[in-house]
Automatic annotation (TrEMBL):
<keyword id="KW-0813">Transport</keyword>
<keyword id="KW-0472">Membrane</keyword>
<feature type="transmembrane region" description="Helical">
    <location>
        <begin position="251"/>
        <end position="269"/>
    </location>
</feature>
<dbReference type="Pfam" id="PF13520">
    <property type="entry name" value="AA_permease_2"/>
</dbReference>
<feature type="transmembrane region" description="Helical">
    <location>
        <begin position="33"/>
        <end position="51"/>
    </location>
</feature>
<feature type="domain" description="Cationic amino acid transporter C-terminal">
    <location>
        <begin position="500"/>
        <end position="543"/>
    </location>
</feature>
<feature type="transmembrane region" description="Helical">
    <location>
        <begin position="63"/>
        <end position="82"/>
    </location>
</feature>
<feature type="transmembrane region" description="Helical">
    <location>
        <begin position="334"/>
        <end position="357"/>
    </location>
</feature>
<dbReference type="GO" id="GO:0016020">
    <property type="term" value="C:membrane"/>
</dbReference>
<feature type="transmembrane region" description="Helical">
    <location>
        <begin position="289"/>
        <end position="314"/>
    </location>
</feature>
<dbReference type="InterPro" id="IPR002293">
    <property type="entry name" value="AA/rel_permease1"/>
</dbReference>
<feature type="transmembrane region" description="Helical">
    <location>
        <begin position="414"/>
        <end position="431"/>
    </location>
</feature>
<feature type="transmembrane region" description="Helical">
    <location>
        <begin position="520"/>
        <end position="538"/>
    </location>
</feature>
<feature type="transmembrane region" description="Helical">
    <location>
        <begin position="219"/>
        <end position="239"/>
    </location>
</feature>
<dbReference type="GO" id="GO:0015171">
    <property type="term" value="F:amino acid transmembrane transporter activity"/>
</dbReference>
<feature type="transmembrane region" description="Helical">
    <location>
        <begin position="382"/>
        <end position="402"/>
    </location>
</feature>
<feature type="transmembrane region" description="Helical">
    <location>
        <begin position="477"/>
        <end position="493"/>
    </location>
</feature>
Length: 554
């Protein structure tokens, strides 16, 4: 096997020709793209996972939102430079193809498939919970056995049988649902039907056209922004400052324990780049939209976190519907009802964005020969990747009906961090090779020759001054990799004068990766090996770029 073939790269000029000849409709403005990002970011995070993150970190979780936002901004700047150079669908997959090579492109594309699918599974499950709460508010009772996942119910049933005296109230309820559920041939019929139905509905909308999808998405974004700003404004008057003390109840470890949930809240800004071929002026509008949506969403997330932890004690926020919970507790059931309806609307918009983004990544990979040809086919009437959209619907809808949300949340972040690091690395490579001169948006160059090493010395010294740094390294061995990579980048920067911004993007994302559990890494590695197997069995020999290179040699 020729290992050099694994790192073959695309020419940027060839990709720009693809944009001009694209069959997709160019209808998206900078406002549409910004709202597209907001729709993706403001979903299950602000209505669901923010509660569990606040329970772990207390009021200081608002600072974690800002920290993660900084990491996302450094990454978004790198995305923005790529988007201004390569206005092609495919997001980080395409960017890696021109900078790092085919094997890295495949790896990122495979990781993005996981990110988009898993993110939407989580949102669909959260949507189901709020939808059922909304129905109850209207006096409609949805069957319990059609609203939960089978495995969680079965686990609770086993727990109640083996440890009946210590089983939690929630597990006891799940166990009762399991026992009373109908069965066929001895198999209990339990699944989350609303999660599957909303995925089916949104997939149908994404199938019929980007213009129709964008119009509905924009309306949903206006509604959710109005409600969230209203929640912050009303909640301010019910804040009890004593709930903010202590501000850091579980220490820095408690705050960082919410990394997976908080980072999940920001996943989605990169989905803007999947619609590059449908933007009116992608090289100018994509960079602006990415930065706009991150800034807007960071302000809203930090504001909501402070209001939540100010209205009630952080220990009460380990619930799946924290916003509705806190307003219900102060007797404002009407506001709690509005929040439930708004959550359904907000999450519908988020599901729509991911169901639009994922098929376009598959389309681009198929167009390059790395995936089966039907994934790249464009519907003649609707001008959307029809087959890929349908498959994406099944890929999300079926697992959403049967999986537990927490398992899926933990699986989301590793692949996304990995993709973000490779995008930042790609910018470093292009800048070093002086291949980014044609970028219409260029990262401001800040010479990191001395700064990166200086920051390393300060950071590592502060780390060593901690009395329990040995214990920290033992509990988080991946942190050693972080310091080794930082030292390596410091030495490389002395020689190559790397720009500071992409280096900071790599380091922020890598550090946040070290805060994730080993189980997250284990599942991601299994997913990665599965993807590499497909690449070596199918993608490598069917690569369009490989055929072009072989033809040129003849």
């Amino acid at each position: 096997m020729n290992f050099n073939s694994l790192f073959r790269k695309k020419n940027i000029s060839d990709l720009q020709d693809i944009t001009q000849n694209s069959q997709l409709n160019k209808v998206l403005s900078v406002k549409d793209l910004t709202f597209f990002g907001i729709a993706a970011i403001i979903g299950a995070g602000i209505f669901s996972t923010i509660g569990r993150a606040s329970y772990e970190g207390g009021p200081a979780i608002s600072l974690l939102f800002i920290l993660v936002a900084v990491a996302c901004i450094f990454t978004a700047l790198c995305y923005a430079q790529f988007a201004s150079m390569i206005p092609v669908s495919g997001s980080a997959y395409t960017y890696a193809y021109v900078s790092l090579g085919e094997i890295f492109a495949w790896t990122i594309g495979w990781a993005l498939i996981l990110e988009y699918a898993v993110s939407n599974i989580v949102i669909a499950i959260s949507w189901s919970g709020y939808f059922i709460s909304m129905l109850q508010g209207f006096g409609i009772h949805w069957p319990d056995w059609l609203s939960i996942d089978y495995w969680n119910a079965h686990r609770a049933f086993i727990e109640s049988q083996t440890h009946p005296l210590t089983v939690s109230a929630n597990d006891l309820k799940l166990s009762q649902i399991y026992q009373s559920a109908p069965e066929i041939s001895g198999i209990k019929i339990i699944f989350n039907l609303p999660a599957g139905l909303i995925t089916l509905l949104v997939t149908a909308l994404a199938y019929v056209g980007i213009k129709e999808s964008t119009r509905i998405s924009n309306i949903l974004v206006w509604i959710k922004l109005t409600v969230i700003i209203g929640i912050i404004f009303i909640g301010v008057f019910y804040i009890k400052p004593e709930n903010w003390s202590p501000f850091l109840p579980n220490g820095l470890g408690g705050v960082m324990g919410g990394v997976a949930a908080v980072f999940f809240s920001f996943i989605g800004f990169d989905s803007i780049s999947t619609t590059a071929e449908e933007a009116k002026n992608p090289q100018k509008d994509l960079p602006r939209a990415m930065l706009y949506c991150i800034i807007i969403c960071t302000v809203l997330y930090a504001g909501i976190a402070l209001v939540l932890t100010g209205m009630v004690n952080y220990k009460e926020l380990r619930v799946d519907d924290p916003l509705a919970y806190v307003f219900g507790k102060i007797g404002m059931n009407f506001i709690a009802g509005i929040i439930s309806v708004s959550a359904v609307i907000a999450m519908t918009g988020a599901i729509l964005v991911y169901q639009i983004g994922q098929p376009r990544i598959w389309m681009t990979m198929s167009r390059d020969g790395l995936l089966w040809k039907p994934f790249g086919k464009i519907h003649k009437k609707y001008h959307t990747p029809g087959f890929a959209t349908i498959i994406a619907g099944f890929f999300v809808g079926i697992p959403a009906m049967f999986l537990d949300m927490q398992i899926v949340v933990d699986l989301t972040s590793v692949g996304t961090f990995f993709a973000f690091i490779l995008v930042c690395s790609g910018v470093l490579y292009l800048d070093h090779k002086k291949l980014s001169k044609q970028a219409k948006f260029k990262l401001p160059y800040i010479n990191g020759k001395i700064l990166i090493l200086l920051f390393f010395c300060i950071g590592f010294t502060l780390f060593l001054t901690q009395t329990d740094f040995h214990k920290i390294l033992k509990e988080k061995p991946l942190l050693s990799i972080f310091w080794i990579v930082w030292l390596g980048l410091s030495i490389a920067s002395l020689k190559y004068k790397f720009s500071l911004i992409p280096i900071l993007g790599i380091l922020f994302n890598l550090y946040l990766m070290t805060e994730l559990e080993w189980s997250n890494w284990g599942m991601f590695i299994i997913w990665l090996f599965l993807g590499l197997s497909i690449y070596f069995l199918y993608g490598r020999k069917n690569s369009k770029l490989s055929r072009l290179i072989q033809t040129a040699k003849k």
